[in-house]
Amino acid sequence: MIAFMNQKGGVGKTTTAVNLAAALAQSGRSVGVIDLDPQAHLTLHFGAEVAPGSPSVYDVLVDEGTPVDEAVMRVTERLLLLPAETDLAGAEVELAGLPDRTLRLARKCAESSMLRGLDFLLIDCPPSLGLLTLNALVLAREVMVPMQAHFLALQGLSKLLETVSLVSRGVNPDLRVTGILLCMYEGQTRLAAEVVGDLETYLESHRGEAVPWRDCRVLRPAIRRNIKLAECPSFGRSIFDYDAHCPGAEDYLALAQNLTVEAEPSVNGETAERAAGIETAHDIEPPVVVTSVQGAAAAAPAPQGSGHAAEAP
Ligand SMILES: Nc1ncnc2c1ncn2[C@@H]1O[C@H](COP(=O)(O)OP(=O)(O)O)[C@@H](O)[C@H]1O
Ligand SMILES: [Mg+2]
Question: Which CATH number fits the domain that encloses residue 158?
Answer without folding.
Answer: 3.40.50.300
